[in-house]
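User: For documentation purposes, I need each entry recorded in a consistent format: the amino acid sequence on its own, followed directly by the corresponding structure tokens. There are two entries in this batch. Please keep commentary to a minimum and don't merge the entries.

Assistant: Recorded as requested. Entry 1:
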Amino acid sequence: MINDVSMLKAMLKQYGWSCRPSFNGKATYWSFPHSGSGMENLLITIPEDKSTDDYEFYLEQAYHEIELIYGKNFETFKEEYRSFSSRQFDPLEIREETGVKDGLIPWDKGRRLVLGAEGILNAGARATAVGLRNRKAHYLQTAHAAAESVLSESFMGQTKIGSYIVTMYVPSEHRFSISSKKNSQNQLMDSDYILGRDVTNTIVSSLQSFKSGFHETSGKNASDIDYEFFNELVQDGVSYELLDAISCLLDEKETQITVAQPVKDVPSEKKTYEISVGSYMSEWVDRGKFCLKGEFEPIRVLVAGEVTRLDNSARNPHHLIKMRLVSNASISAISMLSVHLSSEQYQDAIRAHKAKVMFMVKGEIKKKGRIFEMTLPDFVSVTNTPISQIAEEYNERENFQQTSLF
């Protein structure tokens, strides 16, 4: 049976009431703090101690008072609460304070909050479905069936007074199909489904990575953040789709994103994760979307950098090197480059690596997946410039002047 006290408290909390406990802990007192509502002087007492003689009296009185105030809304809430309490949900909540007691918000802003919540759940479903080793920067149609399943079988809650809140309830133990086959819950094989809790775990890790990534690069111009940096966030679930969803939530007023995960077998206890986003993140998010979307036109350029890896095994000789580049105005977003060399050019790369000096290559850079590469450069050169200059540039963000050839 559903705990009526818990239900009444959840109802009052959702509608913006404030709570203070009694001195002996046997009751809680609830008041409505919003001025102009006509309810400022109301006080509802909810009993907490079942052993007291007046427990049933105060419980019935609280029930009656709340029913008088909210009428049909109370009946609707009771049905939803009892339905949700029989199952375990992980709520994803998007909140923007409006300053209006009735929770009103301009239509366009409210629509964007819904799109943002849906997009975050969509991105989390896709990143979960493909697995940790197969995370993508941009999913396009990949894992579309999983995203469709999670979105269609999760739920949306009501908004709350004093702010505009979109809440999506993800059934934590529900099996969401990741294939296009229409099978019942009992017919799904282990490889055919993901659990709701798996999805919210991915959302939490991706939002935490997003937050730490933003703070790590704070103080830098967004245009100076390279592809490599954003690609490193992909394994945590960050994707173009996630950043696109977050971009819907960026406003002058901060928006809070909260994920709550009830502890298994103890639903009253929850692990809560929260981050705030705002318009001050716009340039960073746009840069991330650009880098993760993968749109990159091939470009002919002269670049220099440190040879960080030599790969030419006897079994599979392919004269591949990796370079950490000095910043170049034409390719400021690229910090690492894979270069396929001829056998003669590879010998020059070995000399540059041994001497710890910069190596210079000229040719066409293309993007293959998440990797930037150049094949058989037109020209290579071992310079006299020590690689220590690269470290200085990365620390001081000084521009290394080179010529771009188109």
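Entry 2:
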Amino acid sequence: MLEKIKDKVTRQIIRLTVMVQNEKGNLPTFATIAGLTFVAVMLILAGYEILKIFFPDFLNGMLNVIKQKFTIQ
């Protein structure tokens, strides 16, 4: 699951890079978006790691609830 998130974020950053290269001159906007995206992803990963280390049962329960909500029956 974590690998899928990393892949999606990587694709999004590549897409943003291509958009900025095509725009030319929009670098501050790109830097802001990329920086905020990076910070958000790092906070999510840090939260995941903290839950995984200190509260593994809670994390597993939470992930099971998420899977149930998004599973088509």
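Summary note for entry 2:
The chain has one domain: 2-70.
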